[in-house]
Design goal:
Elements lengths: L2 E2 L37 H4 L7 E5 L4 E9 L3 E7 L4 E7 L3 E6 L1
Protein name: Collagen-like protein
Keywords: Collagen
């Protein structure tokens, strides 16, 4: 189960961000990284905060993600949908692997 959360009021999908937790101002890299197996926990993914991160979910979905919050059991930030960043969150236990660049 994934959540599509509304865009926070302090950021815009395009143009300048009005806070440190807004979406990136540019699209993610065009090349998809090779999947590397990682143990997914708050410590391992914490280094990806505010960095372009490619996520593979256990259900087969995969996408570019820009994390702005990493909790003990969940992560949230901005998911790239091909032309726009949307606010998104999921449980860490749903993530199969990730790579941040």
């Amino acid at each position: 189960m994934f959540m599509h959360l509304p865009m926070p009021p302090f950021s815009l999908p395009f143009g300048p961000s009005f806070g440190p937790n807004g979406p990136p101002l540019a699209p993610p890299p065009s090349q998809i990284p090779e999947m590397t197996p990682y143990k997914v926990d708050p410590g391992s993914i914490r280094r990806c905060k505010y960095r372009y991160t490619y996520i593979w979910l256990k259900n087969g979905d995969n996408f570019w993600f820009y994390p702005v919050y990493i909790g003990r059991k969940s992560i949230s930030g901005y998911r790239w949908i091909g032309f726009w960043w949307i606010y998104y969150g999921t449980d860490l236990k749903r993530i199969e692997s990730f790579v941040c660049v």
